[in-house]
Amino acid sequence: AAVPTGGLALLLGVLLWRALHGAPLTELSGDQDFQLFLQRNLEFTRKIRGDVAALQRVVCDTLQLCKEDELLLVRQDLDIAQASLEQCHRRTFQAETCFSQIRAGLRIYHGSLATIQALLPGHSGLVETLQMDMANLSSNIQQQMEDLGLATVTYPTENQDPLPTFSSHFHQQVGGFFILANFQRFLETAYRALRHLTSL
After folding, report:
1. Angle at Cα 188 formed by Cα 166 and Cα 23, nearest 5°?
2. Three-state SS for 66?
3. Where does this protein have coiled-coil stretches (predicted)?
4. Under DSSP, is residue 129 helix (H, G, I), strand (E, B) or coil?
5. 67 CA to centre of own chain
6. Is the Cα torsion angle 183, 144, 130, 172 positive or negative in sign?
7. CATH of 30-198, one of 1.20.1250.10, 1.10.20.10, 3.40.50.1970, 3.30.360.10
8. Residues 97 and 81 sit within 8 Å (Cβ to Cβ)
């Protein structure tokens, strides 16, 4: 279920404006609209994380790829993209750059999920739902940044990045495992960044 863009954009606008302009957020802590924004946004991110976790369980059950430490040697041979979120960590937090990095990362993983779809054709519905939620979240953030007059990058509707190539089916399977593991870590950082905004 997508978060309604209009309400989210308006509420995120108030939050981001205050975060970017240094206004105290304490007066918002008891505000009903603010709490509603937090609940919706964090629940939406949690839903995406849950879908990724479900795909991770399928990879474990069907491909017997469950433990990351057992696959690290194979990982070195794979060219798996990792999205950077260094501007979303608490010490270096910058709202505008963090949200840009979240959008860029969502785009990378949106494309990479084609590998998962090829590996798990029986679960393509879950992959497509996940991709739709990711696109909606990215769109919400872009809309909000535009409303605030922040610099945004408009990505093409169709992902233009080349998909990772694998030398064997096993490498493709391990690649799929790490795509999901990296995406889950990305989402956890993005989630913490959203939580961090609430404490500014």
Report:
1. 135
2. coil
3. none
4. helix
5. 22
6. negative
7. 1.20.1250.10
8. no
Task: Find tokens 């739709």 and name the residue.
Answer: 132
Residue appearing with tokens 């949200």: 99
Of residues 175 and 93, more confidence is placed in 175
The single residue listed with the structure tokens 């839903």 is: 47
Closest CA to 52 of 166, 122, 107, 129: 129
Give, in order, the Cα–Cα distances in Å from 15 to each of 25, 34, 50, 75, 126. Answer: 8, 8, 26, 39, 32
Question: How much is the mean pLDDT over the chain?
Answer: 77
Give the integer Cα–Cα distance in Å for 173 and 59. 8
Residue 64 or 160, more confident: 64
Which residue matches tokens 């399977």?
A: 173
